C-alpha cells in the first residue's frame, strides 16, 4: 500500500459507504411510486450513480484494509421507510427531499476533501461531489419547470 489512509480518512470512507447505500435505496424506492416514465428513468440513472459510488467505496475500504461499517446493513431498510413516507406527499415533495439529501452529500464531500490527504481519495471525493451537484441541478430544474 503506497499511501495508507489516516483513521479519519477510513472513517469518512465507511460513513460515505453507508450514506451511498441509503441514497441508492432512496432513488430505487422513489422511482417505484412514479407514473412519469421520464422522471422515473432520471431517478434510475441517479440511483445507478449512487450504486457505483457504493461499490467503489466498498472497494476502497477493502483496498486500504478496512471493513464496511456494520450499520450499513440497516441503511437500506431505513432509507426505504423514509422514502415511502416522503412519497405520501407527492412528486414535488419527493424531489425537494432528494435535493436536500444531495445538498447534504455535497457539504459532506466538501468537508471530507478539506480533511483528506490521500490524493486518490481526494480525487474520488471530488468526483462524487460533482455527481451529487449534478443531481441537485437536474432536480432543481425539474422543480422550477413544475414537473410533477
Keywords for this entry:
single chain; 148 residues; mainly alpha; Ferritin
How far apart the termini lie comes to 49 Å
Task: Give the count of helical stretches.
Answer: 5
Strand content: under 5%
Q: How many distinct domains?
A: 1
Residue-averaged pLDDT, rounded? Answer: 88
Q: What is the helix content? A: over 70%
* The top level CATH class name: Mainly Alpha
Shape: globular
Major sheet characteristics: none
Secondary structure class reads mainly alpha
Count of individual beta strands = 0
Oligomer: single chain
CATH superfamily: Ferritin, core subunit, four-helix bundle
C-alpha-based Rg, rounded? 16 Å
- What is the element string, with H for helices and E for strands? HHHHH
Task: Give the topology, please.
Elements: H1 7-32, H2 37-63, H3 72-87, H4 91-115, H5 119-144
Helix pairs in contact: 1-2, 1-3, 1-4, 2-5, 4-5
Describe this structure in words.
The chain has 148 residues and is mostly helical. It has a single domain, classed as Ferritin. 81% of the residues lie in helices and 0% in strands. The chain has five helices and no strands. Helix 1 packs antiparallel against helix 2, helix 1 runs antiparallel to helix 4 and helix 2 packs antiparallel against helix 5. It is globular. The mean pLDDT is 88.
Amino acid at each position: 500500500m503506497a499511501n495508507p489512509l489516516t483513521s479519519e480518512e477510513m472513517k469518512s470512507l465507511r460513513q460515505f459507504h453507508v450514506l451511498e447505500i441509503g441514497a441508492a435505496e432512496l432513488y430505487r424506492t422513489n422511482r417505484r411510486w412514479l407514473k412519469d416514465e421520464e422522471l422515473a428513468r432520471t431517478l434510475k440513472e441517479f440511483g445507478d450513480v449512487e450504486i457505483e459510488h457504493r461499490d467503489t467505496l466498498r472497494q476502497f475500504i477493502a483496498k486500504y484494509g478496512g471493513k464496511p461499517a456494520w450499520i450499513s446493513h440497516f441503511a437500506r431498510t431505513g432509507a426505504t421507510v423514509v422514502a415511502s413516507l416522503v412519497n405520501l406527499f407527492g412528486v414535488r415533495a419527493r424531489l425537494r427531499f432528494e435535493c436536500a439529501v444531495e445538498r447534504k452529500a455535497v457539504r459532506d464531500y466538501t468537508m471530507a476533501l478539506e480533511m483528506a490527504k490521500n490524493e486518490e481519495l481526494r480525487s474520488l471525493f471530488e468526483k462524487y461531489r460533482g455527481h451529487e451537484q449534478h443531481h441537485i441541478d437536474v432536480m432543481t430544474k425539474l422543480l422550477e419547470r413544475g414537473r410533477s
